[in-house]
Amino acid sequence: MFEALETGKRLDKATFDARELVLREQLLQYQFRLVDHKVPTIIVVAGVDGAGKGSLVHQLNTWMDPRGIETNALWMHSDEEESRPYYWRYWRCLPRRGEIGVFLGSWYTRLIRERLEDKTDAARQARRLAQINDFERLLCADGYLIVKLWLHVSSETQHLQLTEEAPRQQQNPRIEADASAWQKVYPQVLQCAQEVILASDTAHAPWHLVEADDRNYREIACGEILLEAMRGHLEQPRPPAAEPLPALADTSGGQPTVLDRVDSKASLAKEDYRKLLPQCQARLQDLAWKAHRQRRSFVAVFEGWDAAGKGSAIRRVTGAVDPRLYHLAQYAAPTDEELDHHYLWRFWRKIQRDGRATLFDRSWYGRVLVERVEGFATNAQWQRAYNEINQFEAQLLEHGTVLCKFWIHISSQEQLARFKARENTPHKRYKITDDDWRNRDKWRDYELAVEDMVAHTSTSLAPWTLVAGNDKHYARIQILETLCQALEQALD
């Protein structure tokens, strides 16, 4: 593969200057068009050490408007990154719509390094590659443009770049001039890179291999590749905007749903509740500190009907956990900044480090519930979200996170009673809105959406817990006991 790139491509200064003049104007033009069309762009710059990656990134920032470009140099990992799921470091750096994110050090770095150091078996390598392809696929489906550049230099050129013989401006200052060590691993690096490139060279995010021995040719070639990618992306037909959808077609014939299996009559006597609550909270408190000592994080997702008691249940959980050990993330309609990213971005960035808990009051399941029912997401968007959510949760679990997901179910009659009680209680009136009443008219639509959600995302490792919520006392104890059992099973 790489031998075909060693053909001696070069550009003299006069040719470089002439092509640069045209290229620079066109890059700026298309950069501004991407801004107008709110297209987020990712540029992955990869290659062997000494290939001129830093020089190329500097040139791209010179040619285009740097105010719309953010360079992410992720070749060194902080403890903040290491104490979270691997892809957290990349999700938090994703560019907003209309901006460009350059990645020096990317999601390919770990795989190539592990492969080079022989620290991965075939199964793990296949899993890593699948995660990469899934990650890029979900971004492209959301409108991202991904341009992946691999800069190749010959062994001789790399040796020259990493020794004192190279011109000072072409040396890589972060690498000591121990060219002999790099020469030894050069063939293995190319072999590992070839395997990774072949497995991740997809139609939606193809690799571009560039001969990089000559700086002038390298930078013009990469600039023209980027320009063509921008032009091609803008010429693609745009997906239609989401429009309000009619009521979901009820194809069940009135048959029961998964929610009908929840025992709506389940209850707990007040005296039993007063006895069990402090016991469960003390148990959860001990487990939270044990998880902290063992550097295990846990994530709890709270979903359910309006007025189902999510807030009061969460307060019983937070009342048991030391405030230093958890973060509560509460979500409503997305902000402008959140809309400028993939919908999972606002949830990824809230994931806490090892030893801490993240509690989600509403979550990523809004994509397949309210956004589906209300027409804020297209059919394609919410249908592919099941797979995207399962991938997200699989990465949390792979990192060692303990994950619990709760749907608090109440009957329609119980919801109506709670709505009226809120209207009649001055300090609770703020909790009831016109949207709450309007959503009641779509009860069956939401019921069918929950049925699909549970069917598609209740996996063996991340099952849903359907909570009987008509009696709040019963619901709170069920949630606390479920959290305790999950932590006890996971901790040493």
TrEMBL record:
Gene Ontology biological process terms in this record: polyphosphate metabolic process
SUPFAM superfamilies, per the entry: P-loop containing nucleoside triphosphate hydrolases
InterPro entries: P-loop_NTPase (IPR027417), PolyP_AMP_Tfrase (IPR022489), PPK2-related (IPR022488)
GO MF annotations, alphabetized: polyphosphate:AMP phosphotransferase activity
UniProtKB keywords: Transferase
Gene3D superfamilies reported for this sequence: P-loop containing nucleotide triphosphate hydrolases
Pfam families (alphabetical): PPK2
Domain Polyphosphate kinase-2-related: 11-233, 268-489
Superkingdom field: Bacteria
UniProt-listed NCBIfam families: poly_P_AMP_trns
PANTHER family linked to this entry: POLYPHOSPHATE:AMP PHOSPHOTRANSFERASE (PTHR34383:SF3), POLYPHOSPHATE:AMP PHOSPHOTRANSFERASE-RELATED (PTHR34383)
Record-given protein name: Polyphosphate:AMP phosphotransferase
Gene coding for it: pap
